[in-house]
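quick one, 278 residues, struct below
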Amino acid sequence: MAAHVRPGPADPPGPRGRGAFTAMTFNIRRPMEKYRRMAPDAWFTRAPAVQAVLRAHRPELVALQEVLPQQLHPLRQGLGPDHVLLGGGRDADGGGERCLLGVDTARFGIEHWRQRWLSPQPELPGSKWPGDLFPRTLVLADLTDRRTGVRWRAVATHLDPWPERGRLRQLAALQGLLHSWDGPLLLLGDMNAAAGRSRTWDAALAGGLRDTLPADAAGTFPRYRDPRAGTPRLDWILYGGRVRVLGSRVLAERPRGVWASDHFPVLAELEHDGGPTS
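---
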């Protein structure tokens, strides 16, 4: 891994070159039918705020978690016509929650992509480890930056909230796909484990990945509240290979006074730390 100095929370972003782009991970919270229209958790209330966050930052790569089919159209409106959403439902019949990878095809060419289940049978839809709460998936895409020619691998995922041994199995199931790549790579997702204070975090960094955020970054799971001390940072953007982080932050934004989700998104501005590759 290349040496890297991360900017502190008060540092301005570094100079933006033609190879810089933005990546985001955002758990948008699935619709919950039990909540009234104007409740903080109601999708009807939150959908415009989710769109506002996406429009404001226009990430060229974005991992989205807890997505159900009725949320796809608002997400596409928020991202714009050049984005495609890669991934499907996690259940055996193709239904259920989706963990998606959004790619701005005006910026990145998609060489190849696939969805896999984090289980002993990764090709089997709906499969999971015994004891896991839900089937969990990853979406992997090999991409070519149209501006620089650099090839990237991006992986979006969403791990179980408990038990930690289940998360560790799920993380191990995807690590082989990361280590088989010799270029710059990104792992984006809701890991349901606290950055800096969980075995899942330790295992991810032991595998060679690095954090885009400073160690004292704000938590990402405030449950429709203002940022506060002690909130865990469950949402990560990690990188491997020759990657330079120009800036990164937790987006504690409230468009028109509405929290978009019970999670805060994470945004990072990145570039390849080296010249163009073939």
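The chain has one domain: 21-272.
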